[in-house]
Design a protein that fits this description.
- It is a single chain.
- This protein is α/β, with parallel strands linked by helices.
- It has helices spanning about 35-60, 110-115, 140-155, 165-175, 200-215, 215-230, 235-240, 245-255, 255-265, 290-305, 320-330; strands at about 70-75, 80-90, 95, 120-125, 160-165, 185, 280-285, 305-310.
- The protein has a single domain (about 30-335), classed as 3-Layer(aba) Sandwich (Rossmann fold).
- Strands 1-2-4-3-5-6-7-8 form an eight-stranded mixed β-sheet, with helices on both faces.
- α3 packs across α4 (about 165-175) and α6 (about 215-230) crosses α8.
Length: about 325
């Protein structure tokens, strides 16, 4: 098992890139007034969580191929897109929804599923555009909701759902749109705690899409990690050589990072649509995570009719399956 990576500069504020940071984008930095500060705090939470998801990819892959075990199948979404998934274990059905950069072969879901399969029939899947799943343009959050709805049909009734990072935001969108679940558990969904509506990641999304369209996927990963997040350039430069498998996998799915940003831009599930998410929801965080992510945990739990929060000792956004699984067993009544 590789040494666990620590995120860099997690204690520093992260703001949307300036005009000079985003070449070719019509970017205006927000004025530093009260709402500007809110926008920057929300940007910090979202971008931090997405880059942390990239760190999860490196931590869990460790330069090796993690082949999914279980029964591999596909289902078809409403728009005809093929969604690949793995079914393992026995017991009540449970779906795990990954965050940015992650899919069945890359990230924490496969390891977590191995543990949860002791008591559940666990479904992990490649979100559209990742792994063995297809993709259909143009992207829309509604299409990802339909993907989750199709998987829920495969899983059957009395479904539990676990969302990691921005995967939790997708679960909230799905439930608010009528996907039926029994209980929800979310790990650090990276909504800003402030609740201000005036935030956008259009400049970041446009730059990423421009690089991908030009065939420069490596440049897209480098842009996000350096210009947006502020990772040390020598580290990012060395990644293709020190961690070639992780770098390759990040390049394969970097075009889907705008999908996660689009989901997180819509806070209606925490406001006017929150009443439609009446199922019990546990929002979990790590007590070692940055304050912005810990505040987001509390804010999301408080925004939902039946939301509750809980913090895990010694954990950060790079959650350990061994720490999370017992909490899920207890919450879902399997302890």
């Amino acid at each position: 098992m590789p040494a666990r990576l620590k995120l860099w500069k997690t204690s520093l504020p992260i703001f949307p890139p300036s005009r000079s940071d985003v070449e070719g984008a019509n970017c205006e930095r927000p004025a530093r007034d009260k709402t500007g500060g809110s926008i920057q705090r929300i940007a910090f939470v979202v971008i931090l969580a997405i880059v942390a998801a990239g760190a999860l990819v490196i931590w869990y892959s460790g330069g090796r191929t993690m082949t999914s075990t279980g029964e591999n199948r596909t289902t078809t979404s409403r728009d005809g897109t093929t969604i690949a998934f793995t079914k393992k274990g026995s017991g009540p059905p449970l779906i795990i929804v990954d965050g940015a950069f992650c899919y069945r072969e890359n990230g924490p879901a496969t390891e977590l599923a191995k543990v949860l399969a002791q008591h559940f029939t666990v479904f992990t899947y490649d979100r559209r555009g990742r792994g063995e799943s297809g993709d259909t343009e143009p992207y829309a959050v509604e299409r990802e909701i339909d993907d989750l709805r199709a998987l829920a049909r495969e899983a059957g009734p009395s479904l539990y759902a676990v969302g990691i990072s921005s995967g939790g935001a997708l679960i909230l969108q799905a439930v608010a749109s009528g996907v039926t679940v029994k209980k929800i558990a979310l790990y650090e969904p990276p909504y800003g705690a402030d609740g201000n509506d005036r935030r956008s990641f259009e400049d970041v999304k446009n730059r990423l899409q421009s690089l991908v369209s030009a065939g420069d996927r490596g440049g897209a990963v480098r842009f996000f990690m350096t210009n947006v997040y502020g990772a040390p350039r020598p580290f990012v430069f060395a990644m293709p050589f020190l961690m070639p498998n992780a770098w390759r996998r990040n390049k394969l799915v970097v075009h889907t990072v705008p999908y996660d940003l689009t989901i997180l831009e819509d806070r209606s599930v925490l406001k006017e649509r929150s009443s439609s998410i009446a199922v019990p929801t546990l929002v979990i965080g790590g007590d070692k995570s940055p304050k912005a992510l810990r505040d987001a945990v509390t804010a999301v739990a408080n925004a939902l009719p039946n939301g509750h929060s809980r913090y895990l000792s010694g954990q950060d956004h790079n959650i350990s399956s061994g720490a999370l699984a017992p909490v899920l067993f207890e919450y879902f009544g399997m302890s």
